[in-house]
Amino acid sequence: MYPNKSVRRTSKSPYFPGLDDQAGPVLLEEPSHLVDSTLGTQPLSSPSRSSPHSQGSEGGERFSRKVFVGGLPPDIDEDEITVSFRRFGPLVVDWPHKAESKSYFPPKGYAFLLFQDENSVQSLIDACITDEDKLYLCVSSPTIKDKPVQIRPWRLSDADFVLDASMPLDPRKTVFVGGVPRPLKAVELAMIMDRLYGGVCYAGIDTDPELKYPKGAGRVAFSNQQSYIAAISARFVQLQHGDIDKRVEVKPYVLDDQMCDECQGQRCGGKFAPFFCANVTCLQYYCEHCWATIHSRPGREFHKPLVKEGADRPRAVPFRWC
């Protein structure tokens, strides 16, 4: 359900931090084909920040228990990665398509550390060295000793940013952005979209329910119809920031609890409308009957409906903490 529009979050700081903070080298970025680009995967307000495994850190910050580590030695295997990071707490080492590939070595030189407890992430951060706002830790493999690898934690507060707290969040002026690079913070997405289209009042990064780690998608709410239409009419946007230069998709944010804008549920037994028309001549929700009626008119017969996809289905990872 869409949150109460009167509830608004403010970011921790009104200032826009350096764009190079979390960009990371391009070769450390997860492949774009792994991005979850489903429509409307989360409500505009972020889910609860709590987790059965999470504890607040001393500074009050909260981190995802999933941490990206890049630039690994090519001959380091899963067991050796586990040994390298086990001193911070129980963890699991994972990487995309690990189960299918049956490989013992991360194929792209990066992996994810899934810690059992959030305070392990803070301990890992404390042990890192900092260079140009990036975190590094030295690990060793059978042939390479003390190789610096990049550690990229995700701070939960970076998943939401309110640019204009005077404006209520309106789902009818909100876009879904697919293929968002995972290092990108909500504040950075807000600033980029505001520079391109203006009128941004909120941006959010979609995170998975369990680990609260970015899924590769986001949402941007606009304060006016003109900016909203400009964004969805563009269909794609080039995210240029730091080392990132990526073309991503922009679509209307589709909700699953809207009545048909034509009949208000009278022709569909009060059921929620299954279709949304993203064409700028419509921008409405329709039941099946009203969609057929409206789109039989000349000029509208080629409009294609957007359908809200199923709820989040987090991947079950069978593992034991090491």
UniProtKB/TrEMBL annotation:
Residues 65-156, 173-251 form the RRM domain. Transmembrane segments: none annotated. It comes from the Eukaryota. It holds the Pfam family CEBP_ZZ. PROSITE patterns: RRM. Residues 1-64 are annotated as: Disordered. Its main location: cytoplasm. The keyword Methyltransferase does not apply. It is found in: Cytoplasm. Residues 43-56 have a biased composition (Low complexity). Residues 1-11 have a biased composition (Basic residues). This is RRM domain-containing protein.
